[in-house]
Model the fold of this input.
Amino acid sequence: MNSHFEREISIRRERYGISCKTESDSIGSKQIPAEALLWGSVLRGAENFHITGAKLHPNLSTVWRPLKSFCVEQPSGGRIDKSICDAICQACDEIMAGQFHDQFICDAIRGSRHHSHMNANEVIANRAIEILGGTKGDYSVVHPNDHVNRAQSTNDVIPTAGKITTINCCRPAVKELQRLEKSLAAKEKEFDSVVKMGRTQMQDAVPIRLGQEFGAYRSVVARDLKTVQRADALSVQHQHGRHRHWHLPQRQPGLWVHCCHWGRSPACPWSKPTTWWMPPSM
Done:
């Protein structure tokens, strides 16, 4: 039986006349839309873990620029041409600006985070190929693994990307939690004169005021608000202007196989922290 994605591709091809291309790897061949910026392996991963249909948080796209550009911009003994580095950085900038989000197809709840990482690598690589005047899928121009991934490990990149995304979401979350706390405080006063039956598990308990119940909701939100504010404060302890620093760890065995000449992975030399930019709107 065809997968959900294959059926969707077939419908789009018949209804809108969208052309498809065949991508092959060591496992087999897959039909994907010709305009897609991803490879068959990512489509296969999306098919295997089509659980909720929910996509990854869009703010996650803002972290690929620092994580990938820091990697390719490091001195690499001439291994990566400057034009390829510039194309990769431009592709990341375009994704960060909101383009190509429809190309990130992996389910947010899945059995492997590697597909999401390779999804990003392949979208960045194919867009970089277009920027350099090549044809999507011609990985002799820009390769998603050799050039974009550049010895990075998913076990390091995805946790770091998730933490940076969480930090970037702290300030918007603080504003919304403050609004919610204020609204619950207003209802606490409004319902203070309303008496209701209390509940203890499955049984009735002594009466309480409805305002007390909303007061309990308010106190929980206020507690969690302080937790988010503390997390945001900790993340800016080493803030310079609007730049923050994060050390991308390297725990995966074998990362040094493609090291730079000084014996450290180009993904993140331990002596230098990864720096990312916090947009003014955050």
Remarks:
- The CA atoms of residues 129 and 142 lie 6 Å apart.
- DSSP finds eight helices and eight strands in the chain.
